Amino acid sequence: MVFTAPVLNYTLLSPILILLGGALIGVLVEAFVSKGLRAITQLSVTLGTLILSLVQVWKIRNEQSLTAAAGSVVIDGPAVLLQASILIIAIISVFVIADTDHFTALAASLPGSDEERHAVQSGNQVTEVYPLTLFAISGMMLFPISSDLITLFVALEMLSLPLYLMAGLSRRRRLASQEAALKYFLLGAFSSAFFLFGMAYLYGYSASVTFAGIRESVVGGSGNDVLLLIGMAFVSIGLLFKVGAVPFHAWSPDVYQGAPTPITGFMAAATKVAAFGAMLRIYYTVFANAQWSWTPLLSAIAIITMLFGSLVAIAQRDVKRMLAYSSIAHAGFLLAGVIALNKAGLDASIFYLFAYGVATVGAFAIVTLVRDAGGEVTDLNRWKGLGKRSPWIATTFAGFLLAFAGIPLTSGFIGKFSIFSAAYESGAKSVVIAGVLSSAIAAFFYIRVIVLMFFTDSVQDGTSVEIPSALTRITIIFSTVVTFALGIYPAPLLSFITNLATFIR
Amino acid sequence: MIWLTLLMALPLAGSVAVALVPKANEKLIKQTAFITTLIVMGTTIAMAVNFQRDNVELQFIEKYSWIPSFGINYALGIDGLALVLILMSTILAPVVVLAGWNESHGGRWSIKSFYILILVLETMMIGVFAATDVFLFYVIFEAMLIPVYFLIGGYGSGERAAAAVKFLIYSLFGGLLMLASIIALYVMSGAQGGHTFDLKALSQLEMSSTTQNLLFLGFFIAFAIKAPLWPLHTWLPDAADSATPGTSVLLLGVLDKVGTFGMIRYCLTLFPEASRTFTPLILVLAVISIVYGAILAIGQRDLKRLIAFTSISHFGFITMGIFAMTSQGYSGAALYMFNHGFSTAALFLVGGWMISRRGSSTIADFGGLQRITPVMAWMFFIAGMSSLALPGLSSFVSEFLVLVGTFTRYPVHAVIATFGIVLAALYILIPVQKALHGPTTPGNENLSDLNLREKIAIAPIIAIIIALGFYPSPLLNVINPAATHVIAQLGFSDPVPTSGEK
């Protein structure tokens, strides 16, 4: 038997390789750099890695290749756009993560133990969150460019495992945080199992694990359709779990609430980009010819997700939970882009993912600022009168909420318009009507928060707004500027996306 | 010359200027805002002079590519109707600023924010009438809710937050229905020769009558909420009750006109067939609005709510005139929109002064104002007479035209609507009698009459009301060519009046 060494195109893979290298350096920094210098070194390494990786992505933006890693990954326009979105979201998230005040001093210690107290007192803050973030990002970067099921699964685990850990790193309310991490891990493991199970069926159907091979069988229509249907269903469950679509959403409110807020923002934004990126690729290329088998069901899921997310969000009293349900509703809107199954749908989805991701990181960055002596205040009742005490922060947060609600002159409106018009064009009228309806419902709870902040008198209970650190400030300003710039003049980005976004197969 | 962009840019520049003034210098803030609105008014009048009134096509056209991926343009242009409404908006703005010189003081936020919001709103008011790209129109239509929301919720009185939310939810709901229709239009335009939002191109789309009916409803419900037509009116009395008088003037006088303007510009132009299909239903709703609004106005004890309900009655007249499909009805409706802006402004402003002096908005608390504050009482009287369409005042001409225009085609509706006029006499004369005449109610003895600023603010409105009552031709000359054109485009010709003698 002759062994042929795989040919790797290192230029095209460099964005991911740089990230993995940076993550490994981060692990070494954690072990060898003295505690005084550790945080700043980690931050520089992480940011440097991310920026270098983004530069590489920019350099390969016009490349197209099916053979970058022996047929396991595909580099094309959507791949580059999604990777760039993930990296930009990651960079602004790291600015918020850099405020180490959010993370436990020693994650390995029991909550409330002497060990923990000692770590806090000695200022021995561990900073493993940085390499974990980089590992997660490299998984996210790999996920939407995978072109066989094995790589897809590896990427899925690569992005998930660090996230499970990161969800448990909260400094305050550590038990809730650890509960969130465990919940996320268990349910995530279940969904991975479903995913793996579906993979097996798809292999049974097409005798291939590559997207090209499965696609050939789907187009040819020669295989056993039952295997295809089961395979598609289980793989979809795995993906829908990651994006938090109903009925696979149960983890997200608890995890959003329990995880440290900077991580929640990062997770909500970047995971969505990665998971929807992979979904778009799979449904647009592999399963495209079987669309009559999956669009009805996926449409139903989209409609239920939008309506459920919007309706349940109304009842929330906690800002993080409210944003979690709002992100469920947004997952429903994004599913409309998957269902559209046309070029306009692809462009719209990529635009929406980027716009929504940036606004989400910005919104969670603001949540980190509202605090009292015991840490962050996420109870909405205590956000009353925020507009009076810190008008700028409240106005910015209101801006993000308006963007989530899809009010014109914000990026959210352009995103919603483009995604709904693409879905309508492909005939998914019921999805569009449900989308418009749930937007109306969603507007209600976003506005309620604005009312709380601006039109209700504040209670003196020690809730105050922290002056944002310089880094957090960059994130908030960047998110705000992008959110409104994309609402007022989205033409350059839209045409950039339109020109690049074509799947090759 | 790019008149319309200039008009939109001026208030925006003014709002930036206001933002730069230090917060403590309240006087300079107000002066900057006032001068800005005066400049905008002057520019509008200059533009109106350049308007060719016999030309029925859109004028002062501007078109720049905005979002080419979706075929969206920044496209502006006005016809006679839009010109009249922009003129009304820009004349009302300085009046509102001057009349409500102190009304921003009781607000939740600074005086500065109040004037920034007002000026941003003025930009949008001009834009919403000038847009000829459906997407641009929608963007402004929705975005202008935000400043109004903060104006009501931040500077009003009473249950202002609740009223602001009610206003916003109603409007957003209507707006989203319209968005669904716009998406459908956009997709159809893509299938029929390329994505576009150009009003003219969209009006030539081929579509089945079912589609047309559904899309028409999407637009119409949004506009019927705005213009408040019964039964979608319930947000208005609350909003008007809570808002400051100045905000109410802009809300009822200008923003609600976007609804009736939209019915003409978008419903009739884009869906002529569906408009005809729904005319019987809409006329019934309009007649109900006329009578219902009037009856509820009679029953009001609160001055502000009373004015709000009279407006519901008046919007019924405007809607009836639009859907009568005659050129008189259309001209009457267009003129009515202009006149209603001024008569409502006069009522709200004078009413607002009365309320702030007395510290109560209950009609029964006033009494004998005619003796104590003669100027204020006279102004209220004239405003009221204009509201009930007394011959010789501007509203009479428009109400008469609407009724005549409706009668030639829908006599029964016109006759029932005429009862609205009788009821109008009641709803105006009862408060006039209670508030202005009769014995002086205790507590009113020391009320002060209008000061110079207030007199200067109200004078132009009263002058316009009287002048247009006797000589409406300058406006009608601008409106009439467009009216005949629109009615002809819809495939209607005015019914020939039947002779009474045989």
Automatic annotation (TrEMBL), chain A:
One of its GO terms (molecular function) is NADH dehydrogenase (ubiquinone) activity. It is a multi-pass membrane protein. InterPro entries: NADH-Q_OxRdtase_suN/2 (IPR010096), ND/Mrp_TM (IPR001750). Its main location: membrane. The keyword Membrane applies. The chain crosses the membrane at residues 12-33, 39-58, 79-98, 149-169, 181-206, 226-251, 263-284, 296-315, 322-344, 350-370, 391-411, 431-455, 476-497. GO terms for biological process: ATP synthesis coupled electron transport. One of its GO terms (cellular component) is membrane. Keywords: Membrane, Transmembrane, Transmembrane helix. It is found in: Membrane. Pfam families: Proton_antipo_M. Residues 146-441 form the NADH:quinone oxidoreductase/Mrp antiporter transmembrane domain. The keyword Translocase does not apply. HAMAP family: NDH1_NuoN_1. NCBIfam families: NDH_I_N, PRK05777.1-4. This is Unannotated protein. It comes from freshwater metagenome.
TrEMBL record, chain B:
The keyword Membrane applies. It is a multi-pass membrane protein. One of its GO terms (cellular component) is membrane. The keyword Hydrolase does not apply. One of its GO terms (molecular function) is ubiquinone binding. It is found in: Membrane. Keywords: Membrane, Transmembrane, Transmembrane helix. GO terms for biological process: ATP synthesis coupled electron transport; electron transport coupled proton transport. It holds the Pfam family Proton_antipo_M. Residues 131-423 form the NADH:quinone oxidoreductase/Mrp antiporter transmembrane domain. The chain crosses the membrane at residues 29-51, 72-101, 113-130, 135-155, 167-189, 210-229, 278-299, 306-327, 375-398, 410-430, 456-473. InterPro entries: NADH_Q_OxRdtase_chainM/4 (IPR010227), NADH_UbQ_OxRdtase (IPR003918), ND/Mrp_TM (IPR001750). NCBIfam families: NDH_I_M, PRK05846.1-4. Belongs to the complex I subunit 4 family. This is Unannotated protein. It comes from freshwater metagenome.
